[in-house]
UniProtKB/TrEMBL annotation:
GO terms, molecular function: (3S)-3-hydroxyacyl-CoA dehydrogenase (NAD+) activity; NAD+ binding
UniProt pathway annotation: Lipid metabolism; fatty acid beta-oxidation
Protein name: 3-hydroxyacyl-CoA dehydrogenase
Record's catalysed reaction(s): a (3S)-3-hydroxyacyl-CoA + NAD(+) = a 3-oxoacyl-CoA + NADH + H(+)
Chain ranges of the 3-hydroxyacyl-CoA dehydrogenase C-terminal domain: 194-293
Gene3D superfamilies associated with the record: 1.10.1040.50, 2-enoyl-CoA Hydratase, Chain A, domain 1, NAD(P)-binding Rossmann-like Domain
Record GO biological process: fatty acid beta-oxidation
Keywords tagged on the record: Fatty acid metabolism, Lipid degradation, Lipid metabolism, NAD, Oxidoreductase
Every 3-hydroxyacyl-CoA dehydrogenase NAD binding domain range: 7-191
Highest taxon, organism lineage: Bacteria
Family: Belongs to the 3-hydroxyacyl-CoA dehydrogenase family.
Length: 798
């Protein structure tokens, strides 16, 4: 039967349930959030109401925009259960007790539509146990949908069907989860705690056992097993604090009880000292202390202390230095970093080898039992725990280096699956053939294509494919790549995709020469960030050396290439993801259309380094705020001061959107721009948008914009803005140099010495931008701010 989800209900308004409702709102799906009625409650909806309010205040934010909360209705399961008949998907997210869940299902079954999808957000209870005693129809429409916390940001969504689940429901939920919810979907077998928690919690407890037995401190472990071992900065113990020690205990106990044949069962016993910590209520972030505790000194400074396993007191964290970690820090790729640490001979390398061997052997032994493919195991670890490499991707790093393999697995037998891939495969779990990535299928002992979302575009695959090269041109800083169907992609290669001369040159080439070969252009890449802006190092060096002609030429070149994008007859679509700051934001402002990833953080942040936007950002943002002559003629116009004031209020404090939705509210994106929630399909969607524009151009229904005239308020309005700045300076809210930067910005946004009734050209505003930028570059305090960002990665308030 065909499925569709237009409205949902979430039962259980705790941390997970409320966050699931928030994410449904993020993607435009209304939901009903229900919970129990407390005894003697005057407000019968108080639990659901509180859950929603906490979610609105959560940090990081659960909603793309707080306006999304309008899509969440609250209620309780006594008064509002019959409303479940109106929804397509019912998500149960109540306490992890099978009896309570089964009792709730009995109530749900009496009111839900026969075709309603019913899922549980359990983190480990077996699906077949939950549906015992339910009707055949209920079982056909039931599965587990295990979200990870925080729901908005964690990509992993584990789907666990039962033997009775409708065969059509699983592919529907897989596509819905991918395309609508933006999740990375992993299909799990119905085994205790599924894939991510089964392997991840084993690795965590194995590490604790090693630390306790060999005397490693908490901060030592996190220093060793953090980013240099391909893990997030929170490493091991800080990650446990974030997820909650009670959650860890629950998962571990569930595995110990429900996996009696697991050869590593005893590892899942919570160590006595950890149980003491939990019994004291030190559960991590939720209780303000766990393995770590944040305290404030008499001077108000915050200090993070670590738990001492021997005394259960909190001690200051010492600095830990290891030769292997020091060498790894200077390397680029996760593979290089991990290999360096594992190859070392110090205390860090010893722990890294022992814990890595434990985790990889366990993953190889469990994979056929808990998953259909090694790809699902790897995706679960990367998406569920933010590891750089999945278990079998890490196996391949070792399998390609026999000496390192022997060093890590000294005195240990390699698992049967590893022996099989060496004997019957090509010696590694993954291979690339004709640009296609393939994995070793343990069912058939053959290599199969790595599955992905429908129509995924991989720039790496296009560039490495045999036959005619997809790379049209490459200058080191950027490439022009043929995506097929008459669409090209402009990809950046610099560090953090910062804009340098090579990128500017390639943008010019893409428009001027690319239009002879292609009918549309996408500007996008597969890096974590779209672009962190202009190359600040080059700006600082130019300013320090007094190379003003060079700097002016560079700024002018950036302005003109952005104008070239804006007025190009070739339809251009930008596809930002992650950070699009400064010059990266300016680039977006000048393209014809944007297809943004939902998790895009867009803003004009130049004031943070003592500058103002000068690549056309001020000019375009004024136009977005309604500064064009055409907009001023509108009946809704409040005059030329309002656009200047709005632009000033946003740019002067370096406002950055916390999502693509908020970027639309801030007008960094247009209302007509589109949002994709899944990183994997962003380029696919951007290409589709580009083709639509190209087809519209071919039918005469699309044409590039023409130069616009702006009506700006002039010197009188500048004085008003400067008075506001002076008030902030007098009250100590900003520094003197902040006020100087703000004054330069106010002059640009109000049009310098222009008349408030005489329109000015776009070039006029560009000239004001460039003049202010160069003037600020010459100031020592601005140069100090640039240097602070480059050296310490932190803004300087001087």
């Amino acid at each position: 039967m065909p499925y569709a989800i237009r409205k949902a209900a979430v039962i259980g308004a705790g941390v997970m349930g409320a966050a699931i409702a928030a994410h449904l709102a993020n993607v435009g799906i209304p939901s009903l959030l229900l919970d129990i009625v407390p005894a003697d409650a005057k407000d019968r909806d108080i639990i659901a109401r509180t859950g929603l309010q906490k979610t609105l205040k959560s940090k990081p934010a659960s909603f793309y925009s707080k306006r999304g909360a309008q899509l969440v209705s609250i209620g309780n399961i006594e008064d509002d259960l019959e409303k479940l008949a109106e929804v397509d998907w019912i998500i149960e997210a109540v306490i992890e007790r099978a009896d309570i869940k089964q009792s709730l299902y009995n109530k749900i079954e009496q009111v839900a539509r026969p075709d309603a999808i019913i899922t549980s957000n359990t983190s480990g209870l077996p699906a077949h146990l939950l549906v015992e005693g339910r009707s055949e129809n209920f079982r056909r429409h039931f599965m587990i949908t295990h979200f990870f916390n925080p729901v908005r940001y964690m990509r992993l969504l584990e789907l666990v069907p039962t033997a009775d689940t409708d065969p059509e429901l699983l592919p529907f939920m897989r596509q819905f989860g991918t395309e609508v919810l933006g999740k990375g979907i992993v299909i799990c077998k119905d085994t205790p705690n599924f894939i991510a928690n089964r392997i991840g919690v084993y690795g965590f407890l194995s590490t604790i056992h090693h630390a306790l037995a060999e005397g490693y401190t908490i901060s030592e472990v996190d220093t060793i097993l953090g980013t240099n071992m391909g893990r997030p900065k929170s490493a091991v113990f800080r990650t446990a604090d974030l997820s909650g020690l009670d959650t860890l205990m629950h998962v571990a106990n569930n595995l110990y009880q429900n996996a009696p044949e697991d050869e590593q069962r005893e590892t899942f016993k919570i160590p006595e000292v950890v149980q003491q910590v939990i019994d004291r209520g030190w559960l991590g972030e939720k209780s303000s202390q766990g393995f770590y505790k944040r305290t404030k000194g008499a001077d108000g400074a915050s200090t993070i202390l670590e738990l001492n396993f021997k005394t259960l007191d909190y001690d200051p964290q010492p600095k830990h230095r290891f030769d292997s970690i020091g060498k790894a820090r200077n390397l680029e790729t996760p593979e290089q970093k991990i290999s360096t640490v594992l190859n070392g001979d110090d205390r860090a390398s010893h722990l890294a080898r022992e814990t890595t061997a434990d985790a990889l052997i366990y993953a190889a032994n469990r994979a056929p039992e808990i998953a259909e493919t090694i790809v699902d195991v790897d995706n679960a670890m990367r998406w569920g725990f933010n590891f750089d490499l999945g278990s079998f991707e890490l196996w391949d790093v070792l399998l390609k280096d026999p000496a390192l393999l022997d060093k890590v697995f000294a005195r240990r037998d390699l698992p049967e699956l590893v022996q099989r891939v060496r004997a019957q495969g090509e010696g590694t779990f993954y291979r690339t053939t004709a640009g296609e990535k393939q994995y070793f299928d343990f069912h058939t002992n053959s290599y199969q294509p790595v599955p992905g979302a429908r129509g995924v575009i991989s720039l790496d695959a296009l560039k490495s494919a045999t036959g005619k090269s997809a790379v049209v041109r490459d200058n080191g800083s950027a490439s022009l790549i043929d995506l097929g169907d008459g669409v090209a992609c402009l990809e950046f290669h610099t560090k953090m995709n910062s804009i340098d001369e090579g990128i500017v040159e390639m943008m010019r080439y893409a428009v001027e020469e690319g239009s002879k070969q292609f009918r549309a252009l996408v500007i996008g890449n597969e890096a974590p960030d779209f672009s962190a802006g202009a190359n600040l190092f080059l700006v600082l060096m130019g300013a320090r050396q007094g190379a003003w002609d060079m700097l002016e030429a560079a700024i002018s070149g950036l302005q003109q290439v952005h104008q070239l994008l804006k007025f190009s007859p070739l339809p251009i679509v930008s596809a930002p993801t992650g950070r699009a700051l400064g010059g990266g934001c300016e680039m977006i402002l000048h393209t014809h259309h944007t297809r943004a990833l939902a998790e895009s953080y867009i803003g004009l942040v130049e004031v943070g380094v003592g500058l103002i936007p000068a690549g056309g950002g001020c000019k375009e943002y004024l136009l977005r705020q309604g500064a064009s002559v055409e907009s001023q003629k509108s009946a809704k116009s409040n005059g030329p001061f309002t656009p200047a004031r709005r632009a000033f209020e946003t740019i002067a404090v370096a406002t950055v959107s916390t999502s693509a939705t908020e970027a639309q509210e801030l007008r960094f994106l247009r209302k007509t721009d589109k949002i994709t929630v899944n990183r994997e399909i962003l380029l696919r969607d951007a290409k589709a948008d580009a083709i639509k524009l190209a087809e519209a151009k071919e039918t005469g229904t699309w044409q590039p914009v023409q130069p616009q005239m702006l009506l700006l308020p002039g010197a009188g309005a500048r004085l008003v803005l400067e008075q506001q700045v002076e008030g902030m300076l007098l009250t100590g809210k900003i520094s003197e140099h902040d006020s100087i930067i703000a004054s330069h910005l106010a002059r640009v946004l109000t049009g310098g010495d222009c008349s408030p009734v005489t329109p000015v050209t776009e070039q006029y505003v560009l000239d004001l931008e460039r003049e202010a930028f160069l003037s600020l570059c010459g100031m020592e305090k601005t140069q100090d701010r640039m240097q602070s960002i480059l050296q310490a990665g932190k803004p300087l308030r001087n």
